[in-house]
Amino acid sequence: MANLSLKWQKFIAVTLALFLVMGVFVFTATLVNAYLDRRAEISGLESKLRRIEKTLESEEALQQLAQQQERSAKDRNLFLGSGDTELVAAKLQDQVSRLLQRYDARLIRSQQIQVDPLQGALGIGLKLQLQVKLQDIVRILHELEENRPLLFLDSLSVTISRASSRLRVRGKAKTTPELLDVNLDIVGYQLQQVNDG
After folding, report:
1. For residue 149, is the peptide bond before it cis, meaning its omega torsion is within 30 degrees of 0?
2. pLDDT tens across 157-167, in order?
3. How far is Cα 171 from Cα 111, in angstroms, rounded to an integer?
């Protein structure tokens, strides 16, 4: 280095200093760039995490909603179907007729009756006159009250049928089961539709 002139020595020193500053600058820029990339990646992952958390919250809310609707559907099974009251009453009469057929009972007369509504439910009733064997009356009444939709016995009158009385007078009561004339009012309830708006 002694052979080099002072100018060259200054030039080499400045060049080395410049390279050193540029090296530090490039190294710092690389570190800052890597930091910014990692920061963006972390931000993206945090965003994904928030979306997953929202999805999980939504899933829990959807599960609660599904359970609520399932309970609501079970509750709806307690009520008569929706639609025109005459049509619902006809379906109710058909349901009663099918029940009576299983027990070989006769539906003598059926008439729709007015029933006071309950809060949120419209009452639909039938006045029925039946002819039933003595041993079947309890089973029929039990099925009417226990099956779905829920039906309530509003009034009940049971008498021995005239046909059964005539047979007993003639001495044939031992071979023929006693028939009962049954008059009853059954009531079911239909959920009223709630109009939005």
Report:
1. yes
2. 988 877 665 55
3. 35
Residues in the chain: 197
- Sequential DSSP letters for the chain: -TTS-HHHHHHHHHHHHHHHHHHHHHHHHHHHHHHHHHHHHHHHHHHHHHHHHHHHHHHHHHHHHHHHHHHHHHHHTTSBPSS-HHHHHHHHHHHHHHHHHHTT-EEEEEEEEE-PPBTTEEEEEEEEEEEEEGGGHHHHHHHHHHSSSP-EEEEEEEEE-HHHHHHHHTT-TTTSPPEEEEEEEEEEEEEPPPPP-
Closest CA to 118 of 188, 15, 34, 195: 188
pLDDT of 123-150, one tens digit each?
Answer: 889 999 999 998 898 899 888 888 878 8
What tokens does 120 get? 């949120």
Q: At what angle do helices 85-102 and 137-146 cross, to 10 degrees?
A: 140
